[in-house]
Amino acid sequence: MCLAVPMQVEEIDGYTGRCVARGIEREVSLFLLQGEELAPGDHVLVHVGYAIQKVSAEEAADSWALFDEVLDANA
């Protein structure tokens, strides 16, 4: 099983994107999504530095809500 974190694309430079999630910024490879139309503002799932899937803003928010539930349950 793998874990992917939803992030919002802030900037795109070729196959590299600057993405942000909850104030944390990372450079992310967009190479695996070269068949997708991506633009700043889009959301992607990121696994070990690679964007692996484009998702809607709602799907990204739902994922973060589930992560919050897990963290709250373990507190």
The whole-number mean of residue pLDDT values reads 95
Structural class: alpha+beta
Order of helices and strands: EEEEEH
Helix content: 10-25%
How many angstroms separate the termini? 23 Å
Q: State the CATH architecture.
A: Roll
Describe this structure in words.
The protein has one helix spanning 57-73, and strands at 5-13, 16-21, 24-29, 43-47, 50-55. It is elongated, with a radius of gyration of 12 Å. The protein has one domain (5-73): SH3 type barrels. By secondary structure, the chain is of the alpha+beta class. The two termini are 23 Å apart. It has a 5-stranded antiparallel β-sheet, with helices on one face. The longest helix is centred in the C-terminal third of the chain and has 17 residues, at 57-73.
